[in-house]
Amino acid sequence: MLSQHRVLDLTDERGQLAGLLLAGVGADVVAVEPPGGSSARRLGPFAADIDDGERSLFHWAYNRGKRSVVLDLEADDGKVALRRLVEGADVLVESAGPGVMDRMGLGYESLAALNPALVHVSISGFGEDGPKATWRAPDLVVAAAAGPLLMTGDEDRPPLRISLPQAYHHAAADAAGAALIALHERDNRSG
What DSSP string describes the chain? Predict the structure, then answer.
């Protein structure tokens, strides 16, 4: 379905499901990892209980079907390499946090100047701007702010997590859906 589309996945554990879903429908997904690898590589459980980034089952689960490239986006050569990738990409999905990509000179405006047809999807806890944009946003806080924690636990006790972190998985699934809608619009209507 998406075999002619390239996706750049600049997400960490908060958004890697989006790239996995797009890879699952045939997109060529390139995971762009920082030196030392994605933070998801440090999440357990680990194969054979060996704590090693190459053995993270979490990373394996959410990054299968993707190719990987290591780029230091803090360095000029890493930024140049990413810009080259953006020129040939259809979608970029990132979860860097409000303002982070802009501060590196890799925000929406600068990347759209390189590739006006690029679908840029940003996953964040409370958006890029607004009164809550800079709030800390771990999964439990986002789930509480969104409402699902009202249905877990008792009123007189702290909230309970819904098994695995869920809020960012929902956001990543929504991000993949939004990317598909934007690609359909771009490819079939607006260009």
Answer: --TT-EEEEE--TTTHHHHHHHHHTT-EEEEEE-TT--GGGG-S-BGGG---GGGBHHHHHHHTTEEEEE--TTSHHHHHHHHHHHHT-SEEEE---TTHHHHTT-SHHHHHHH-TT-EEEE--SS-SSSTTTTS---HHHHHHHHSGGGGSS-TTS-----SS--HHHHHHHHHHHHHHHHHHHIIIII-
